[in-house]
Specification:
Shape: elongated
Structural class: mainly alpha
Order of helices and strands: HHHHHHH
Helix content: 40-55%
CATH class of the largest domain: Mainly Alpha
Radius of gyration: 23 Å
Number of helices: 7
CATH architecture of the largest domain: Orthogonal Bundle
Distance between the termini: 76 Å
Number of domains: 2
CATH superfamily of the largest domain: Cytochrome c-like domain
Largest sheet: none
Length: about 190
């Protein structure tokens, strides 16, 4: 073989090797993307954005038996983006100390998305349950990339922990509770 044949082989090898490398990077990136898309059958009716009375009652009973200790363990994943301790300030996401019972998108000094600001309301137990199920489904356009927690029991544990992580925790529902009282604190 002459020198030109070796040069062509080198160039083709470089091009094919680069393409293979880029494909491998793309496949790895897809495995770590935090979004979750769940296809639902067309015959299944769409759920309303809020909870039904039966759904709120069942979540209240799950929350009544929630474990703050298990919630603290599960919430460790939140610490990647949020501070959970008092006075630590924001990270990528806002500080979550004392979040239960406070107004949505109210942490001073944090730049919330327009979609989350428009949500309004208060972070009640039920609102946090819907949010933690799938933040992007709850507020389309949120900048939070977290996929959510599928297990209702784990969500209840995290909410019980977040509630305890406050200067003034709200009373958790008791067994057989209907729905959570609407308590609002103006501090956040």
């Amino acid at each position: 073989m002459d020198a030109n044949a070796y040069r062509i082989n080198k160039i083709l090898g470089l091009v094919l090797g680069s393409a293979l490398f880029l494909q491998a990077v793309h496949m790895i990136d897809q495995n770590f993307t935090p979004t979750r898309i769940v296809a639902k059958p067309a015959s299944e009716p769409a759920k309303p954005k809020g909870e039904t009375a039966a759904g709120a009652q069942s979540f209240a009973s799950v929350l009544a038996s929630a474990s703050v200790e298990r919630g603290a363990q599960i919430a460790k994943q939140c610490e990647i983006c949020h501070n959970l301790g008092k006075g630590l300030g924001s990270k990528i996401g806002p500080d979550l100390y004392g979040v239960v019972g406070h107004k949505v998108a109210s942490e001073s000094g944090f730049n919330y998305s327009a979609a989350l600001k428009a949500k309004g309301g208060t972070w009640t137990f039920d609102a946090l349950n819907v949010w933690l199920t799938n933040p992007r489904a709850d507020v389309s356009g949120t900048l939070m990339t977290y996929a959510g927690i599928d297990s209702e029991k784990q969500r209840a544990d995290v909410i019980a922990y977040l509630n305890s992580n406050s200067d003034n925790p709200l009373p958790l529902p008791t067994a057989g509770a209907q729905a959570q009282p609407d308590t609002t604190s103006p501090s956040k």
